[in-house]
Specification:
Oligomer: single chain
CATH superfamily: Divalent-metal-dependent TIM barrel enzymes
CATH topology: TIM Barrel
Low-confidence stretches: none
Structural class: alpha/beta
Number of helices: 11
Mean pLDDT: 96
Number of domains: 1
Strand content: 5-15%
Largest sheet: 8 strands, parallel, barrel
Shape: globular
Radius of gyration: 18 Å
Order of helices and strands: EHHEHEHEHHEHEHHEEEHEH
Length: 291
């Protein structure tokens, strides 16, 4: 089975987020196991399982782990946690669940989207409340051998350093913090301060050692597109070029949900076609450069 990828220099292949299939799974058209089996057959190397409320039993997760192993697919784990202004037992349960999938499991988790929603960024007081909790969670995750990858949901990439603060300031002050880099979340209208393409690249280059997990989707005019496109509010090829220097960069397709399996399949296949065309163009350019 030939594995999907976005760049020959990235060895981790391409992942697929179960959250993309949320409506399809909820409607009963497809089960989570069937989604994992389809992903494996289509050439995805791993699946990000979203257990939004951390309500899957450990027995069910163990069953998913064993099934995925048979399909030769890696599982990474995700949940929608409460704002990290104070410790939450459910967050610790999420980490325990993630550990079921083995050492090195990546966990896409949130910071404080309810707190930052509708605002330019975090206040200084909110930062001071968030940072100690982040450090406690990160320390525990390191003991467990898993990676917490905090996603930019509605946070700005860069704060102004005085009036509001964002991902840059959190990363500067929390040296153990790793992230899920979601460029489309950053450029979406739900984030009040949108970065330029150059700022997205600047952010990645600054923290590249702690950014190894990426959610792939695209916005245009600050609205999410149903499929991956080569250009929008940023050019994904420019991001891929930066990512290509990190052999272990993990790129997860997480396009918007569709209400039924037919439309979901069309959107995924359209996105894969764009990615394949970009890779062909890149390889052709590399060959031309050698001539």
């Amino acid at each position: 089975m030939r594995r999907l990828s976005v760049c020959s220099r990235i060895s981790t292949g391409l992942g697929l987020a179960s959250n993309t299939y949320k409506q399809v799974i909820q409607s009963g058209e497809m089960t989570l196991k069937e989604m994992i089996a389809w992903a494996a057959g289509r050439g995805f190397s791993w699946v990000e399982v979203r257990d939004a409320n951390v309500d899957m039993t450990q027995e069910a997760l163990e069953d998913i782990r064993k099934f995925a192993e048979k399909m030769a697919v890696r599982i990474h784990y995700s949940w929608d946690n409460q704002d990290v202004l104070k410790e939450d037992e459910k967050f610790y349960k999420g980490m325990e669940n993630a550990a079921i999938f083995g050492k090195g499991t990546c966990c896409r988790v949130l910071i404080a989207p309810n707190t930052v929603k509708g605002k330019d960024g975090y206040t200084k007081d909110e930062m001071e409340r968030i940072l100690p909790v982040l450090n406690k969670y990160i320390k525990k995750s390191e003991e467990m051998g898993i990676h917490l990858c905090f996603e930019n949901a509605m946070e700005p990439i860069f704060g102004d350093g005085t009036r509001y603060f964002g991902m840059n300031e959190l990363m500067e002050r929390c040296l153990g913090m790793c992230v899920t880099f979601d460029a489309a979340n950053a450029t979406n209208h739900t984030t009040c301060v949108n970065p330029t393409e150059d700022e997205l690249l600047e952010y990645y280059e600054k923290f590249r050692d702690r950014i190894f997990y990426f959610h792939l989707k695209v916005t245009r005019n600050h609205k999410l597109l149903d499929t991956v496109e080569a250009d929008g509010d940023f050019h994904i090829e420019k991001l891929f070029e930066a990512f290509s220097e990190n052999d272990g960069m993990m790129i997860c397709l997480e396009i918007p949900q569709q209400p039924d399996l037919v439309r979901m399949t069309v959107a995924v296949e359209s996105s894969l076609k764009v990615l394949k065309e970009l890779q062909k163009a890149r390889q052709s350019g590399e060959r031309s450069g050698l001539e």
